[in-house]
């Protein structure tokens, strides 16, 4: 090409632009071509063997053959390795489901109303679920404060949306290391127990019913039973009365739990949800809180220590003792909350409410007179 001044331009490689070949779409989506090494590319004239991409060819070669079913199963892994991976994936999925359920559970947390000075590291957390029985809760808290103990503790009371007059009486209670919560909508006794158990931050948790009275400081010495028998996970009252015969189940009227062992050995939830192994136990009436007993018995039949009971003259009131009938630990009065909204002619489990109310009225008469009779009927 002539230039001004008679000079001639010599063409160079920079002036030669080779047209780019159109790219051929790889129809095999299961196996994408990879970039080859420079040695393989140069040996094949710019395109590696097997139709792979080369920077010199700037195009794809012929489509690769589709993968077979065996190729998609992670070649190089044995059946045992694949089963191990599948098991781990199932466990991770289970943990994710548990986490999601936990987040949904805490979204229903109740509102805190009162809170006194908190202990930094209490040894035991005493939790009480309340529903329309403020007079019994007052007596229960009084029984806790009456007996001198060395164990540091805190108390959490959760109200399951009681009637306004009943809850107003709870607000007037003043006791050291007490926290009071209230659910805005009713959730049921078992749900409140599950929330209280998760709320506790101590190595030991003592669950008391609202109509339970501690008769001595014997419950504190029961903590030593966990040191004597390393198989024990919980100690509680047998769940049995006139309408229920579940002697291997424990009732949350008195339930002392080693939370450290329980968390390590058992899978929550403990008071709601499935009750595994129900068919293997003598149960007259199934309750959601039996889930803890069932899981503990399946893990180790010797993991539960039982408080036996004997009836009293106060209707369905009973005394729980540990091994020796003279070693009374706790008193429990059945149906205190349910009677709050019933008339005398209403029926509870086949019995008129009048008969239960008479026993409770006699209990309060002797309680305020200081003449409670805890002897067997």
From TrEMBL:
Transmembrane segments: none annotated. It comes from the Bacteria. Residues 1-83 are annotated as: Disordered. Coiled coil: none annotated. Residues 125-248 form the Glycosyltransferase 2-like domain. It holds the Pfam family Glycos_transf_2. Residues 69-83 have a biased composition (Basic and acidic residues). GO terms for molecular function: hexosyltransferase activity. Residues 35-52 have a biased composition (Low complexity). This is Glycosyltransferase 2-like domain-containing protein. It comes from Candidatus Thiodictyon syntrophicum.
């Amino acid at each position: 090409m002539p230039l001004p001044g008679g000079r001639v331009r010599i063409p160079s490689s920079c002036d030669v632009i080779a047209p780019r070949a159109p790219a051929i779409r790889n129809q095999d989506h299961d196996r994408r071509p990879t970039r080859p090494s420079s040695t393989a590319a140069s040996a094949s004239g710019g395109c590696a063997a097997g139709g792979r991409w080369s920077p010199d060819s700037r195009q794809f070669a012929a489509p690769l053959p589709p993968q077979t079913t065996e190729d998609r199963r992670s070649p190089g892994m044995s059946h045992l390795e694949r089963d191990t991976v599948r098991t781990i994936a199932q466990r991770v999925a289970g943990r994710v489901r548990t986490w999601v359920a936990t987040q949904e559970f805490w979204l229903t947390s109740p509102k805190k109303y009162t809170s006194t000075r908190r202990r930094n590291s209490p040894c035991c957390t005493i939790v009480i679920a309340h529903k329309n029985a403020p007079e019994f809760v007052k007596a229960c808290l009084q029984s806790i404060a009456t007996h001198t103990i060395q164990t540091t503790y805190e108390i959490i009371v959760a109200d399951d949306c009681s009637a306004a007059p009943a809850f107003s009486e709870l607000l007037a209670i003043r006791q050291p290391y007490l926290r009071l919560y209230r659910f805005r909508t009713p959730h049921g006794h078992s749900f409140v127990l599950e929330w209280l158990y998760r709320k506790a931050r101590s190595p030991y948790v003592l669950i008391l019913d609202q109509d339970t009275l501690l008769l001595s400081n014997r419950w504190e010495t029961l903590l030593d039973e966990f040191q004597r028998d390393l198989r024990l996970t919980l100690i509680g009252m047998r769940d049995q009365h006139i309408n229920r015969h579940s002697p291997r189940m424990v009732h949350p009227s008195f339930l002392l739990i080693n939370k450290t062992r329980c968390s390590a050995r058992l899978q929550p939830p403990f008071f709601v949800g499935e009750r595994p192994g129900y068919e293997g136990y003598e149960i007259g009436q199934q309750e959601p809180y039996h889930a803890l007993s069932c899981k503990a018995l399946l893990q180790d039949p010797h993991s539960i220590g039982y408080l036996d009971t004997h009836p009293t003259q106060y209707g369905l009131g009973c005394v729980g003792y540990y091994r020796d009938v003279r070693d009374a630990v706790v008193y429990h009065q059945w149906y205190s909350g349910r009677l709050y909204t019933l008339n005398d002619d209403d029926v509870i489990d086949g019995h008129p409410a009048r008969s239960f109310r008479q026993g409770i009225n006699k209990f309060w008469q002797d309680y305020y007179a200081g003449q409670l009779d805890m002897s067997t009927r």
